[in-house]
Amino acid sequence: MKLLGLDYTDISHAFSEEELMVQKTVREFVDSELAPVIDDHFREGSFPFDFVKKFGELGLLGINLPTEYGCAGMSNLAYGLVCQELERCDSGIRSFVSVQGSLVMYPIFAFGSDDQKNKYLPALASGEMIGCFGLTEPDYGSNPSGMITRATKTTGGYLLNGAKMWITNGSIAHLAVVWAKTEDGKIHGFLVDTASEGFSAPMMKNKWSLRASITSELIFNQVFVPEENMLPSVSGLKGPLSCLNQARYGIGWGTLGAAMAMYETALNYAKTRIQFDRPIAGFQLTQEKLVWMLTEITKAQLLALQVGKNKDSGTLRHQQVSMLKRNNTWVARECAKLAREILGANGISGEYPIMRHLMNIESVYTYEGTHDMHTLIMGEDITGTSAIR
Amino acid sequence: MKICVLMKQVPDNDSAIILSNDSSSIKLNDITWCTNESDTYALEEALLMKEAHGGEVVACSFGRESSQQVIKDALAKGADRGLYISEEESDGFDILSTAKIFTQALKDENFDLIFSGLQSNDSGNAQLGLLLAEMLNMSHAALVMGTEVLNDTRIKVKQELEGGWFQWTELDLPASITIQSGLNKPRYASLRGIMMMKKKPIDIFDSSQIDSTGSKNKIFLDKMYIPQKVKETTFIEGTPDEIASKLGDLMINDIKVF
Q1: Residue A317 placed within a domain
Q2: CB contact under 8 A, A22 and B194
Q3: Is A368 a known active-site residue?
Q4: Nearest CB partner across the interface for B188, out of A17, A58, A73
Q5: pLDDT at residue A187 above 70?
């Protein structure tokens, strides 16, 4: 069995049979079910809600978490391939799966009590329950440690006050994993029932990116959270950052998928678009663009593979994830521009997926740690000096 | 209900077909393989039947080593076990010889039902299900578009006739039934199913160890060729409504773009 799609350096052997079967089944599902409807959802600014249960049935939610909670218990390489295949269709779809698995299920699994795990993880894995993750605030994006949202102790629990912004799935979530400071100034995670009094999640409109994904504000006005809904096993910024590390890993693979989709579209177009009585694929300037894309995508793929192997072997350093997210998102962003150029005027047409990917990748370039923040994380790692503290 | 599903590995529709130098075969290295389309519908029908009535689904394939992949895919979708008949030169067997090999491999299993796709996308014989029915003394129905288990000894099937007509037929079990594409919606392998796949057994038969007395080929391949593509322009005449109707018919039935 072989890796499907772009595999210029023959790396199929690096994946297990199960991992390759996962790629195949997700690709079949995406091509048959999601691809035909994604453009309409993007244009309408709607999330394909009907697919949530299907994602659950396929096992795409919390892929790398244990089977005892209804998850697939698969490797991180399998998770990576799933993200690649989903974002090959659309970043918004991959974002949904990333948020549910890495930002909602992972913190419950890693920092939650047994009761929290048993109560929430099976429902989140099946898609019966949708989750969101509240960290970013209007005035605190790259600097989450300055967050304003507060959790004040009260009888039997906490009262949450504050606001979060740019929250994927916020308006459709049943459960919000919210990071807030307690009175001692420490950051804690809270599992907030979105039906709670004082909670609201207005949808953020007028986005020109990730239009097939729901983005919301979360507003907390004296929201009561029972004591047992605080994540017991973590305090401080390492809680949310460890979740982001899971999600950023998936983004590194996802953007690879978007880049592959754009490269394949551009290659096929170049082979069939006739100018000056010959396919434009035969022109040197077009070939240079295609070769640049292929080479950078292949390097990004090899980076994703190695980082995935490190994650599976338990040797991963978070700075390697920064390199993966930073590089692969940049590659996808550059490929979007080149693919658009190769398709000429048709590059802006909705008949092709280029503009959709191009618009999406601008969000991905900034969310989950901006390109520049990952530069500074790596800069500190290699020089021993932080540029931001 | 003990159900066997015959599944064949065939070249993917999008796979480039390149002939060997003597035009007697296709070059296998360039092929992307997949499960024969109508076999996936046969598997789904078997899985639905098992879910409704209980029992066991066995996926069976005959061919070169890579054919085991279609069995593994079936196991990941929910089949209980596999039965692989290994034969690296399976393309060299005519359909009667192939049926005799299957008969030897299946005869002791006492299946209630054998499902197969209507025909394979590569050789297109559409005879294996019928031949097995004869050799294993089973009832037979072809071109089946629906099934309904009546009791432990009888099954009702909806068969496709010409001109958009259908008929319901009752059969005694055991029966060998060939399934037409489109009667259900084949499921995707779930990630949990893929993880379970490795734990399910695949029994392997070496076809050279099977008593295939009398399985000498009666049909011999002369040569293969790839039809030359010719550019053809068709002018459709008539009123706008007639043109639209003819164009729709062309696109659906001839060009098959819908």
Answers
A1: yes
A2: yes
A3: yes
A4: A58
A5: yes
Nearest CA in chain A to B190: A58
pTM tops 0.80: yes
The CATH 3.40.50.620 domain(s) of chain B lie at 2-209
| Per-residue pLDDT at B213 exceeds 80 | no
Residue A147 falls within a domain, yes or no?
A: yes
**Nearest by CB: B191 against A1, A17, A74:** A74
**CB B5 within 8 Å of CB B56:** no
A7: in domain: no
Is CATH 3.40.440.10 the right assignment for the domain spanning B2-209? no
Average pLDDT over residues A68-97: 97
Q: Where in the sequence is the domain holding A152, given as residue range(s)?
A: 131-229
Of A113-117, A385-389, B92-96, where does the model show the most confidence?
A113-117
CB contact (8 A) between residue B191 and residue A22: yes
